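Researcher: Structure for this, please.
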Amino acid sequence: MDILPVVVGIVVIVLGILVSIALHEVGHMVPAKKFGVRVSEYMVGFGPTLWSRTKGETEYGLKAIPLGGYVRLVGMMPPAPAGSRPRDGFFARVVADARDASVSEIRPGEEHRAFYHLSTPKKLVVMLGGPVMNLVIAVVLLAVVFLGIGMPAATTTVADVGEDSAAAAAGVRPGDEVVSFDGVPVEEWSQLVGMVNDRAGEDVPLTVLRDGEEVTLQVTPTPAERPLTDDEGYAVTGDDGEPVMVDGALLGVSSSVERQPLPASSVPEAVWMQVSGTAHAIATLPVRIYDAAYQAFTDEPRAQDSVMSVVGVGRVAVDAAGAEDYTVLARMQLMLMLLAALNIALFMFNLIPLLPLDGGHVVNALYEGARRTVARVRGATLPGPADVAKMMPVAYVVFVVLVGVGAVLMVADLVDPVRLL
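Model: Predicted structure, C-alpha cell format:
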C-alpha cells in the first residue's frame, strides 16, 4: 500500500472533521453576538488548550481532543427564582452550582446581555444555528460530489464481450454504442438490461453505432437467472442479505463506465435519504450499539450499516485512501461523501431533545415560549425565563451515557472495523 495516499486521506478527514466542528460552533456564535450576548470562549476540541488568542471579548482556541467543541454563551441559566430556598442533596447542589457558575460570568452592568434574556425566537436561532450549519455543509459537499465531480454511471457503450456469449455470436464488438433493441431506442444501459430480460431465446435485432455508422445485428439472449433490481438499478436483497434472483436473459456484454454529473434534484434527494436513514438509526440506537458490540466480539461479521465512532469513520477513510484500484478522484469522492454523512449525523444527533445537546436547549426555549404565549392569552403577568438549571442532573446523566456509548463504539471500531470496500 502506498503510504502517501493514506496520509493525505487521514489529513483530509481530520481537517474535514475539525472544520465541521468549527463551523458548527460558528453557527451558534454569530447569531448570539448579533443578538448582543457576550461570547467569552470559542473552542474547537476539548481538554488542554493547545493554542488560543483573545480578540475583542472572545477567546478563540484549539484544544487537544478533537471530538467536539463549544462556545461559552454568558448567562445560559437564570439565577434562582426570588424567594426560593436552598435545598439539600447531591442533585440540588448540582443545580445550585450550575446557576452560580452561570451568573458569575455576567459582568456588572451587562445583565441585559445574558443569554436567558433573549426572546424565544432568538434563542431558537442561536441553538439551531449549529446543527443547521452542519446541514448546509452536507448539502455543499454533496453538491460538489454530484454536480462537480460526478458519479460513475454505466453508458450505452459496450466495454467487453464475453466469449461464447450471445453478443459474441451476433458479432457485437467492444466500443459499439447500443442505439436500439428490437427497434426501441436505448437511452440507458439499465433500460437495455430490462428489455433483454424479457426476450430470452428470441431472435431480436440489435442496432449499434460502429465507426460512425449504424449496424444492425441479430442477437438471441441466453436464458439465465439475474439479480432483481429496483427502479434505481440497485440489486434487491432478501432477509438473508443475498440478492434476489429472477428468471431473465443475458447478452454477455458489459458497459463502459463514465463519471457523469447528476441533476441538481439529486442533492436534496440524497440529503433526505441520509436524514431519514440517520433518524431511523437514532431511533434504534440502543439496538444498533448492542449489535455493533456483539459483532465486534463474536464471529458474526460487522454489518456495513453499523453505527461508527469517529475512529470508525477514520478507518473507512484510510481504506478508501489506500485502495489501489481507486483513482484519486474516486478516493476524494468517497471521503467527501463520508464527511457529508458525518455532518448529517451531527445535524440529526444534536437535535435530540436532551441537554446538553442543542435539541435540549431548543425544547427549553419552546417550553418557555409556550408559557409566555399562554400568559398573554390569559392576560396574566409574563413568566420569567425557564429554570433550565433544574435539568442539569439530566444533562450530566446524558453526558455520561454519551461518553460510554462513544467508548463502546471506539473499541468496536478498533477490534472489528466496518469495511465498505
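Researcher: Any notable elements?
Model: The mean pLDDT is 87. The radius of gyration is 29 Å.
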